[in-house]
Amino acid sequence: MNTPSVLPRAACDPAACAYLLRFLSHDGRGQDVTVPCDEAGNVDMNALTEHLRNTYLGARAMVGRDYSCPTVQTAPSGPDHHEPLLLPCAA
Fold first, then answer.
1. What is the pLDDT tens value at each position of the chain, 91 positions in all?
2. Which of 12, 30, 77, 82 has the smallest C-beta neighbourhood within 10 Å, fewest atoms?
3. Which range of residues forms the domain containing residue 47?
4. Domain count for the chain
5. Does 38 fall in a domain?
6. 80: alpha, beta or left? (left if phi > 0; alpha if psi -120 to 50)
7. CA dist 71 to 12, 50, Å?
8. How far apart, in whole angstroms, are the C-alpha atoms of residue 66 and residue 15?
9. Intra-chain end-to-end CA distance of the chain, in Å
């Protein structure tokens, strides 16, 4: 099972963060990367901490190698609740 994602709780205020962009680790042992986004999967880079921004850019660069194509999901309403909405890499 994957370890928890990188997104710290403080980075996503539920009132301001209805959607998450999630990159799943391919090996199952790595960390997933999750960042706040809008319904279309657009990420506000200026709203991210420097650490989260660097992690997000690294995950984006490693799609297909270390991470799956990201999915847009609703923000969790309970523990580990994510509902996939959009697959940006899907053809």
1. 444 455 444 455 545 678 999 999 988 777 899 999 999 999 999 999 999 999 999 999 999 999 999 999 988 765 455 555 555 565 4
2. 77
3. 9-78
4. 1
5. yes
6. left
7. 17, 22
8. 31
9. 27
